[in-house]
Amino acid sequence: MRERTPTVEDRLKLLQEPHLGTPQAIKSADPLEPTPTVVPVNEIQEYDRNPREARNDAYDRIKESIRQRGFNGVLPITRRPGELHYIAAEGGNTTLQILTRHSRNQSVECTMLADRQ
Question: Is 0.70 topped by the overall pTM?
Fold first, then answer.
């Protein structure tokens, strides 16, 4: 007995099925070692588990320094598995807040760190 030829609808249905498993099962392509990269500031979010509840005491000093000289540092960032956005890491929240609100920088030099949850 001969198999029937799949219809266009059958083919479309097959194309919509996940062939590589669930997105969580796909390994991240993010680096395991610290890696320099350039990322648009608007793709970086503040670290949501930041223990600091009040504004950084050095905020105004850091802001003025960035205003006068520009940001010449490297922002540490990471990304949790399965997430699309980056997050500030290792104390980068204050700098990220300033770059987001007060700087004309479109992109920033970063060091991509492996996620440590």
Answer: no
Taking the C-alpha atoms of residue 91 and residue 80, their distance in angstroms, rounded to an integer, is 16
Q: Furthest-apart CA pair in the chain: how many Å?
A: 80
Sheet holding 35-40, edge to edge: 35-40, 107-112, 75-78, 86-88, 44-45
Calpha distance 70→17 (Å, rounded): 48
Domains in the chain: ranges and CATH: 22-112 (3.90.1530.10)
Distance CA 22, CA 107 (A): 32
**Tens of pLDDT along 25-36?**
445 577 888 999
